[in-house]
Amino acid sequence: MIERIDLVDLLKKRKKDGIRGDLLHRMNIAMVFEKTSTRTRCATSVAAADEGGRGEYLEKCTTLTAQHFHNITIEAFGMTTEEYSRLAKAGCTGITPYQETYNQELYKKLHRWGEKRNYQFRIDAPARALEAGMRTIGMGTLLGLADPTQEMISLFTHIRYLQKKYWQAGFSVSFPRIRHQLGEFKPEFKVNDKQLARIIFAFRICLPNISLVLSTRENETLRDGLAGIGINRMSVASKTTVGGYAETKDSKTGQFDISDDRNVETFCTMLCTKGLEPVFKNWDAIFQNL
Predict the structure, then answer these.
(1) Which helix (H) or strand (E) holds 234?
(2) Is residue 60 one of the residues assigned to a domain?
(3) Rounded to two decimals, what is the model's pTM?
């Protein structure tokens, strides 16, 4: 028992220091649960990855989803090139590894333990994913954490570097502002609607061929106004709860609040009244290996 406690202490210290272990290197982890638990499954996958093991959950989900959808993008923790390669082979076409902030001191302050604390490993995630065969990368920072001007310059520079090295890849940029959330975190830098619009327009001018995304974090008035003017991709009917899309009743315990809660039909009607055509599919898996 003492040996197990000592091992737990060691693993906790390594995670806090951002050190990736190898106790489970090249091992497969079998998970058996008495009930459905998305949170526990994801946590187990992360724990396995921390020690070099193979977390099968995301790969299995991708394989199953690829039987029904051609375009599959995953927003998850940073992985190795080998892990990204396995996801790509399973049918994953894109990764969204938000940097959250490019301010290294602030990043260290906000990420106090775990592998995510490793700034360099996080910032290199898009390059590793593209090297592994991913087709698209979604990028962005969490507006409100640091000076938005400096953040956007860093984000633009990062994208341009990746575009030059991985010129065949597709890129998208999101502009999430900090919303009310369970942790009651208060942003130091508030970004108002006018500032957000200027940021979006600047990116559209400087990066005319990439997708600019505005999520349901924003209210419907702002989203309606920016649709087709800078923004060319939007989410709709989003859920921020773990397992939220499988629930029959709306939960009040989401990761953060959303502002635009319209359903798909209502949202598409709005687009059509503006002379815009809703497009749900712009890619086919048959082109994956071309």
Answers:
(1) strand 233-234
(2) no
(3) 0.77
